[in-house]
Amino acid sequence: MELNFRSDNESPAAPEIMQALSQANEGTAWSYAEDDWSRALDRAFSELFEATTTVIPISTGTAANSIALACLTEPWNLVFCHRGAHVFNDEGGAPEFFGHGLRLMPLDGDDGKLRAGTLVDAVNGSEGHGVHSYAAGALTLTQSTEAGTVYRPDEIAALCAAAGDQGLSVHVDGARFGNAIATLGCAPGACTVDAGVRMMSFGASKNGCLAAEALLIFGDGALRERAERLRKRSGHLLSKMRYVSAQLLAYIDNGLWLRLAAGANAQARRFAEAIAQHPQARSEYSVEANEVFVRWTPAGFSALETAGMQFLRWPGDENLARFVFSHATRAEETAALCEALASVAPA
Amino acid sequence: MELNFRSDNESPAAPEIMQALSQANEGTAWSYAEDDWSRALDRAFSELFEATTTVIPISTGTAANSIALACLTEPWNLVFCHRGAHVFNDEGGAPEFFGHGLRLMPLDGDDGKLRAGTLVDAVNGSEGHGVHSYAAGALTLTQSTEAGTVYRPDEIAALCAAAGDQGLSVHVDGARFGNAIATLGCAPGACTVDAGVRMMSFGASKNGCLAAEALLIFGDGALRERAERLRKRSGHLLSKMRYVSAQLLAYIDNGLWLRLAAGANAQARRFAEAIAQHPQARSEYSVEANEVFVRWTPAGFSALETAGMQFLRWPGDENLARFVFSHATRAEETAALCEALASVAPA
Amino acid sequence: MELNFRSDNESPAAPEIMQALSQANEGTAWSYAEDDWSRALDRAFSELFEATTTVIPISTGTAANSIALACLTEPWNLVFCHRGAHVFNDEGGAPEFFGHGLRLMPLDGDDGKLRAGTLVDAVNGSEGHGVHSYAAGALTLTQSTEAGTVYRPDEIAALCAAAGDQGLSVHVDGARFGNAIATLGCAPGACTVDAGVRMMSFGASKNGCLAAEALLIFGDGALRERAERLRKRSGHLLSKMRYVSAQLLAYIDNGLWLRLAAGANAQARRFAEAIAQHPQARSEYSVEANEVFVRWTPAGFSALETAGMQFLRWPGDENLARFVFSHATRAEETAALCEALASVAPA
Amino acid sequence: MELNFRSDNESPAAPEIMQALSQANEGTAWSYAEDDWSRALDRAFSELFEATTTVIPISTGTAANSIALACLTEPWNLVFCHRGAHVFNDEGGAPEFFGHGLRLMPLDGDDGKLRAGTLVDAVNGSEGHGVHSYAAGALTLTQSTEAGTVYRPDEIAALCAAAGDQGLSVHVDGARFGNAIATLGCAPGACTVDAGVRMMSFGASKNGCLAAEALLIFGDGALRERAERLRKRSGHLLSKMRYVSAQLLAYIDNGLWLRLAAGANAQARRFAEAIAQHPQARSEYSVEANEVFVRWTPAGFSALETAGMQFLRWPGDENLARFVFSHATRAEETAALCEALASVAPA
């Protein structure tokens, strides 16, 4: 028996999403995002975020992130991000491609989080050399973070305030935004548009959809044309966009996204508790969403693998591994994992 | 009653494709095209084309075309295409974006087709100015063409031979490739790899899929890394690629793609026959696939619209309109269209 | 004896320019265009054009043109130009490189000139397809034209008015602007800023400098930062910019540029008169600047070559050749050319 | 009296270079680097480096560096450099622009130098994530370094060997290469082509020229077309290239470049000796070329400034300042600087 805790990217789609696809598959529909589902997105997300929101449906988070950053910058701009950010480490240079050579500037921060002071220092350190240097242009945050932690609304607000003082726009990579909100229990707008965020990649693929992300522009729609141009130019304007938009509508309908995320988070917490009781293994970060980073011995991890548990040995650190819990993780799977953990005796 | 002959892009997905999606939605699967469905593509398409074929699954034809052209060229290359080509008119500059400023050179050709002599003249006319000019780099053909006609294998071979003599690589935009093969009745390889084509965008979205295209590299896989890098950099490497690959596998399984295309073509032929019998309207081009271009009067088109028929008034020519038939067009819909046509009395 | 009428690009620098270089070579000076010569440019050109003018000194016309077009457009914009324009035919894709994939749209026009009606038709023909098409963005004109003709101020004004109505910005490639003004006899601003031109490449290299062009931004300096960023990013911010700026200051000082251009134009007119008297050869275009295009027989051209005359056989047309006269062309050289022409007896 | 030790970029051109310009200004010459001076470069530099060398003359070091890196990489490549490198800090994103979004990876290293072990660790740390990561592509070194130190031939060879083992090509930014060779006393090829360097920016502007750099390709000329295409596309193919090439020929003729560099180095050493005798100030790095970094107090620096000495307060470190000596620095200027230094009494 193999149990998969490698990534929520490997999870199947939720039944509600599959059903929405089937329902959208009736008859003809306008192509290129002129269909009824796509046209309903602005209203649906504006209600969800309790603010005027422009929605650009798209298939991948990398595309959403890259288009957002290209919307907010010029090619000679610096974009600040956490050193662990997906945009910096895992997108194969997509932000640089869409942004025509913009530069990402990775910053350090405990627990996967940036602090306002770090940002201000970095901006100040990058200035003063005119056209010879890149110019500070934007900040991108990840919520929940790559460490499985969650920014509180006041933390986001402080970062946005600092960014705004420096003339930077703020983007949120919300690949696992549902997991964050399920934990925070706040309104989605409270840690985004209300805090000063300008654009957001609202992820759905990891948490129950097949391939669907909503690139959100908060407030006025001045950036809409730019975003739509970039989506088309990058080949991301699907002819049959209704199938993406139908996923998104079902995903946020009646709280499905939060129920799915809450389920994943619950499994992660359960595993975190098992780790807390283990004599050797420990959680590397506070477990606040659906990812658990475990610090342990290579022998310990190997024993778990032998027991059929699949997870990610962290590159470059043999004593670290990542376990991800998805909307589709069943309680008995987590129980089996916890049991396997407990059964590995300390050296 | 409204009947939609606007575009096959507006058709729903075929039931077999929806079923394949459901079947792929079981349990976890490796992400980022490492899944079993994606891994099965090379073999499946190699069998279909009876030649070694590398498959890059992707969501849109624009992305497939653009990646192909970027694989075959340097930024200082000219890419020759028909003046009516989708890459030139309808992709919002995606080829130029992926190709970092390559230039498309549109060529004239009757019936939507290029001729070898035209290509040779164009290449010769573009040469001889060293670094001051773009250098001829590639040729892209559309099969079936934007005019609803079909290149015969010998026509493709002649173009590839001429291109090869000039040092150009050849790409085929096969957004409606199924419609072409359903008409030609030849092996898919006969008018592609055997004729000298190097890369191909094998379309499936228009003919029964939701969002699935197969970017094909024929022969050795030297361009695979380049194509995969470009797919990732452009945000087209879906985390859950299984859903695209499962569509593609079902699409070519047991001849589904040809049955779907043949159905669309049959409806187009039926309408073409009705036009042939009409005292005024006439087909602009030979009807060889699933598109019918009709030359008629604005009043005639208006009368059809009043009768509930939806189609595309061709931009810039009030006496021309395009009718597209899809895998989902029902015989009774075509019959209604033909009846409406016949009922419009000549002026 | 060989006499060179191939191109004004092959001419040496004028003595006054060499002297200015020597004078600028005293002691140290601030680098990267912070020197006194560079700082004096805005005022000097504002006086010359009788309007607020921002000057970006740069080494080549290709760079000036490309930066200007990139300042005025987004990557998804069309830039309209004459089919014979240098930006389209002779810059190796630099506009597309700087413009990140913008597209040049060549238009026809007799005598190397565009007409407002042609522009309006082209803009209208390119519109209406949303993000699927490029969006009309800018117009670039060449003054004097590639055909050796000159736009009158009212022609420029009509083109700018039409462009403005369509939302396009206008750039002038003034590689041979001095030759145009020497002919027009008008104020430099009359056919540029006063007519509605936004940016201009003010050429100096062909007409007496070594390597110096002034990229001009008329009116408010909103585009200055963009232009300066692009200059730096493309490696065109010389550390010792004083040597470029000193050329430019000397070039426009006390009318030198117009005297040099008038000299070149006079030689061209003299040759044009000789052609007018020849029984066979004729001028292809009206000779209004320093270029003469001659329509004649290959045998005639060969006879001139045998007589030691060097000129450009026009690519693709064996009955056409171009003769260019520069500030350094001596009257006896032109006389020798005219004599050689006269001596070739008709067949 | 103001004495300028801010930068060798602020120095005038050497008399021999001005004379070469004048000599090149005789009569007409082929344009676009087809002239006799430009054609003589390959042989002249092949002799200087005692190896087959292709020369691309160009006006700026930023352009030379950026074209070199774009020649050696794909857009999805990492380029490793020292954290203090000009390409990373001072070129406004030119490498990213020419390289279409390549990424620079800054590495630490004492004394402005990289070590092979650091490179190997960095390459290993960047690998293993397939298309999701950038792929290691090239290494660029600065000789003499940004810290005013000099790599020995064996250090370069060790770095090239490590780079080669990892599949990386090596470029040298030789903006102050003359200063390095004047110190090393070795053949120019010994620390470049013989050590495994593939391309080099051979700087001349800082050390006596007006605006001239030679982009060198060692060994086979496979990269020549690529470099020439990029030079043209970036607007760096001067129409009157003779004036750049003539500078370069004069610069390396009969050892001028080394005499000029040796003069600058001698002044720097003299100032270093003065610092060594000062009770407070000290040299931050070993003084091996023409730059001296001084660690001292802000009050000390202010006192020097009050005495008329101009130099660069290092951004971000109030106790550090840079003094640069050029070919044009006169012994009495250095003496005045040393005297001013000595006269500032310790607190």
Automatic annotation (TrEMBL), chains A, B, C, D:
Q: Which UniProt keywords apply?
A: Lyase, Pyridoxal phosphate
Protein name (database record): Beta-eliminating lyase-related protein
Entry's Pfam families? Beta_elim_lyase
A single GO BP term for this record reads:
amino acid metabolic process
The family this protein is said to belong to: Belongs to the threonine aldolase family.
List the top taxonomic levels of the source.
Answer: Bacteria, Pseudomonadati, Pseudomonadota, Gammaproteobacteria, Chromatiales
Q: Where are the transmembrane segments?
A: none
**InterPro entries named among the record's database cross-references:** ArAA_b-elim_lyase/Thr_aldolase, PyrdxlP-dep_Trfase, PyrdxlP-dep_Trfase_major, PyrdxlP-dep_Trfase_small
Q: How the protein assembles, per its UniProt entry?
A: Homotetramer.
Q: Which organism is it from?
A: Elongatibacter sediminis
This protein's superkingdom?
Bacteria
